[in-house]
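$ ./design --mode recover --in tokens.txt
reading tokens...
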């Protein structure tokens, strides 16, 4: 069986939607374009991408340009987010003992929330428990931290990582004499 690709799915959906808006059947589109009805059906269901030539025929028959047919299908480059170290980061949470900075913008459009957590010497975060299905990855950039995870406690040094289900109650603390910095990734994106 053919494997579906996201681009094939998006293109197929777009062709189907335009065809339906124009009140054209697959049989009619096949006759106008010379593209087999089975091929059009496979394209609309994402099982087949088709060729640029077939796309040109379909676009022409449906009265749209290729640009309209292809527009916005591959959005990977729209999701790139660069934030220079010199730029001011949004502080998500701050206490005397802890600071949590967002490392990206437009968080509602992301699948992962990347955070930089700074814990003061002997500081700690509040106890946190997120909903089921949310996961966290901690990577200690500098210093040492202790994390209470349910009934267990883990000590992490520089370059150590811990991956866990964030629905387990958890709290970070810094037992050391200097600040600790932790990269934290939360998925799916949650604030």
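writing sequence...
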């Amino acid at each position: 069986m053919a494997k579906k690709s996201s681009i094939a799915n998006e293109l197929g959906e777009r062709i189907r939607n335009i065809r339906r808006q124009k009140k054209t059947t697959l049989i009619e589109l096949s006759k106008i374009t010379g593209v087999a009805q089975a091929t059009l059906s496979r394209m609309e269901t994402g099982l087949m991408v088709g060729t640029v030539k077939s796309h040109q025929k379909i676009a022409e028959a449906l009265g749209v340009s290729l640009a309209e047919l292809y527009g916005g299908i591959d959005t990977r480059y729209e999701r790139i987010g660069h934030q220079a170290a010199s730029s001011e980061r949004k502080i998500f949470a701050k206490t005397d003992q802890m600071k949590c900075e967002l490392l990206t913008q437009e968080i509602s459009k992301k699948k992962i929330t990347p955070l930089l957590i700074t814990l003061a010497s002997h500081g700690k975060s509040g106890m946190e428990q997120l909903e089921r299905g949310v996961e966290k990855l901690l990577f200690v950039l500098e210093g040492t931290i202790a994390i209470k995870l349910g009934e267990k406690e883990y000590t992490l040094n520089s370059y150590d990582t811990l991956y866990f289900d964030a629905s387990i109650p958890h709290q970070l603390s810094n037992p050391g004499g200097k600040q600790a910095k932790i990269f934290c990734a939360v998925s799916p994106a949650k604030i």
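exit 0
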